[in-house]
Amino acid sequence: MIKTLAPVLFSGVVWADAQTQVLPRVVVPTGNRSFEPARNPSPATRIAYPWKTHITCTIFWIGEQPTARNPTPNCKSSWDTQWALNFGGYDNPDPATRIACHTRGEFRSAGFTPRLNPFYVALPYNDVLNHRTHKPEASRVIPWFSRMRPEPGKTVCKGRWIQIYRNGRSCYAQWEDCGPWTTDDWEYVFGNKPPKNSQNGGAGLDISPSVRDYLGIKSGQKVHWRFVEAGQVPYGPWKKYGQNTAVAAGAAANPDLAAQQRHLEQLRTLRDEQFAKKPLRELQN
């Protein structure tokens, strides 16, 4: 059974040793692009979704061609028939062809500048049947569905942010495709059941090469993940490309803004390290 965690009101992400199978209850700090405290945060920024723990992940990439073991090509996604074209090229997973630098905060293919966020994932659920109709359970099981009030057949899953945690490091990525293997496993994605897929070690999350490189992970290893609201996503390499290019462009044009962003990332890292040193009993009191 997948464990889910309720939030307590402190900032920072903290984990006990995975071997203990005990995890603290946490809430992600709310990011603020203006770099000032939010006086009246919206209800969405206060939402804390439950963690999915010890989930096996596999690597996939835009432009991936079908093989005998993986017959589904990734030139298009469940929601974008021109995914590879819109991304700007083939997201080659070969480390020799990629930029992966924590110092510069740059994680992408070296051959071109992506037009979409290279930090993307796939989860095994699709909320739409076609461009006119949602799946019958979608409005009931998707937590943010009623808030978004979508038009019939318009997905509310594409572009949703998740936080992925492994070995003391958090990464953020956007949900851009469906898989691995199944597209109807809402009991796992939005509920508290384990993935029903049994292939590739029961994988429940596909991650992009950029996510892999940032976390230093290999296909088949386990991570913890959960949904987060857009306002809870801190500045990082996952906000450099795609719909967030305006943020990156503003930082490039304004050295002071870029310095502020780097300073805030350093403070977040120090804060998380300090919380990680506290005994679990202190965090749960």
What does this structure look like?
There is one protein chain. With 285 residues, the chain is of the alpha+beta class. It has a domain of 186 residues: RlpA-like domain (Barwin-like endoglucanases). 21% of the residues lie in helices and 18% in strands. It contains 8 helices and 10 strands. Strands 1-9-4-8-7-10 form a 6-stranded mixed barrel. Strands 2-3 form a two-stranded antiparallel sheet. The protein has a two-stranded antiparallel ribbon with strand order 5-6. β5 and β6 form a beta hairpin. α6 crosses α7. It is globular. The chain starts with 51 loop residues before the first strand and ends with a helix. 35% of the residues are buried. The N terminus is likely disordered.
CATH architecture of the domain at 48-233: Beta Barrel
Strand portion, in percent? Answer: 15-25%
Radius of gyration: 19 Å
Q: What strand line-up does the widest sheet have?
A: 1-9-4-8-7-10
Per CATH, the class of the domain at 48-233 reads Mainly Beta
Largest sheet: 6 strands, mixed, barrel
Give the total of beta strands. Answer: 10
Which geometry do the CA atoms define?
globular
Q: Report the structural category.
A: alpha+beta
Helix/strand order = EHEEEEEHHEEHEHEHHH
CATH superfamily of the domain at 48-233: RlpA-like domain
Distance between the termini: 25 Å
What share of residues is helical? 10-25%
Unreliable stretches (pLDDT < 50, length at least 5) are 1-39, 244-253
